[in-house]
Amino acid sequence: PCEVYFPRKGTMEWHPHSMSCDVxxxxxxxxxxxxxxxxxxxxxxxxxxxxxxxxxxxxxxQKQVNSKSxxxxxxxxxxxxxxxxxxxxxxPVDFVKSISCQICEHILADxxxxxxxxxxxxxxxxxxxxxxxxxxxxxRYPCFPTDLVNPxxxxxxxxxxxxxxxxxKDCQEEVTLGKYSHHLSNHKEKKEKxxxxxxxxxxxxxxxxxxxx
Length: 213
Ligand SMILES: [Zn+2]
Ligand SMILES: [Zn+2]
Ligand SMILES: [Zn+2]
Ligand SMILES: [Zn+2]
Ligand SMILES: [Zn+2]
Description:
CATH architecture of the largest domain: 2-Layer Sandwich
Strand content: 5-15%
GO molecular function, one term: sequence-specific DNA binding
Cofactor: Mn(2+); Mg(2+)
Protein name: V(D)J recombination-activating protein 1
Largest sheet: 2 strands, antiparallel
CATH topology of the largest domain: Herpes Virus-1
Domain NBD: 202-213
Helix content: 40-55%
CATH class of the largest domain: Alpha Beta
Strand order of the largest sheet: 1-2
Number of strands: 4
Subcellular location: Nucleus
Bound molecules: zinc ion
């Protein structure tokens, strides 16, 4: 069954390229092949190869998605980091990638650089090194917590000039990343004062919706 041949006439039966291949071994794949209408041999051969490559690629991408979601569980930073969707400008995807953490995919928060010159949030890479081992999650180059350095200042200043929209309800102000934490602390102050005043009046403190604290 391992021999591959392409008869000029009649439907060709599809066989796995090797008996141990998980990708070829799926039944749906086999049935699909048998039902396919006859067509020139070159096209057929090409389709089998292309199909096979696509399946492998898909399996690989699924593996990547899985490890990404595992890493996101490890970092658990959804509530403390900012989504790239908060950026007020619709930047090219490649630029957004360069200013976001390759572990959590948020906008880089307190970024650090590895020896292999990859960028991560400090929290993310430290948690990740602990969880998966001492190598870079992007390229697998050996990496230890002591190897991490601050990125060059010019990169950090670009990061700090990016503008995000404040997610606080009734605010929605456009703030640069450099001033964001100060802006958010203003909200916290107001919230605390507000709560205090409400308590003094004897009423129940009003619940403020502050998603990012
Ligand atoms: Zn195969
Ligand atoms: Zn994050
Ligand atoms: Zn991160
Ligand atoms: Zn790396
Ligand atoms: Zn605000």
